[in-house]
Specification:
The protein is α/β, with parallel strands linked by helices and 315 residues long. The chain has 3 domains: 144 residues, Rossmann fold (3-Layer(aba) Sandwich), CATH 3.40.50; 64 residues, Helicase, Ruva Protein, domain 3; 68 residues, Winged helix-like DNA-binding domain superfamily/Winged helix DNA-binding domain (Arc Repressor Mutant, subunit A, Orthogonal Bundle). Helix content is 47%, strand content 12%. The chain has a 5-stranded parallel beta sheet, sandwiched between helices. A 3-stranded antiparallel beta sheet has the order 6-8-7. α7 packs across α9, α8 packs across α9 and α10 packs across α11. The longest helix is centred in the C-terminal third of the chain and has 17 residues. The chain is globular, with a radius of gyration of 22 Å. The mean pLDDT is 90.
Amino acid sequence: MRRLLIDSEVLSHAYVPQELLFREEEKAKLLRALLNNVNTFIYGPSGSGKTALLKLTIEEFNSISKARAVYVDAVLCQTTNSILKEILSNLNPLSAIPRSNSYLIERLRRMGKRMTVCIDHFEELRDVSIIDKLFGLSITIILASNQRASFKRLSKHAMSLIPNFLHVARYTDEQVYRILAERARRALSEGCCKSTIISSIAEKSGGNVTLAISLLKACIARAESENRRIVREPDIPNPINEQKTRDDEQILLELMKERKRLPASKLYELYVERAEKAKSERTFREYMRRLRAKGLVRAIGEKRWRVYEFCGVEA
């Protein structure tokens, strides 16, 4: 099999480029917030470079400041205990042994270090009370989310302590093209992927660099499996169309706006009546999880006794 991908790390999800294209202004603003201990909420669509922005800015901040900034991914750390252990392991790998929340908080307090905690993918965080606990330790907080509406998940006290908002806009097709072309130059064998292919991928990505990179990897895998030297236009898969998902979520949100408060079973019944092609109860629960993450609805109770309540209009 001919290898077209010569450096898989460059196309990996964890890869952070040394230079973040088209985010210089946002990086400067975030660095100022870190240097001045300003609590900040960052928001922007998936694939807009928020994670790379956070990681690169944290790296620069830690190189020029006596204080310390720590990165936490809420996809991996969703509870108070897991976040506390992640923070402590960044400060001292030997200090994050399994302990109770109160023990870990006290350990963090005793360290007495000036610190900033940056929590990425905040919409995925299950236990948002950790934010109040960190504020209680005089820690500066940076939150990053796909939706500004996720800000409403915070307590009123926590919201009052975050004065700074930083919006990261969706990339243009041209910007995605330039980012993807640079990744391709570093990761692929010369001449295997023409600029027309990269341009087509950029157009299909809808401004989502993460999706664009995934499409490029799929192209390369297909060409390699057929032992070809170049990628062809038919190799580009069609991205999963999320419009139906958004339509279904919108139906559920409209039902919540109308009824304000509904048991989960009744909400699902109404959704099935209104949707053209209603999804399974499992998918329904996933839609509701997303609406909760956006701060648009809240859940009261568990499992079969769960009740959903409308929280307000979308920001």
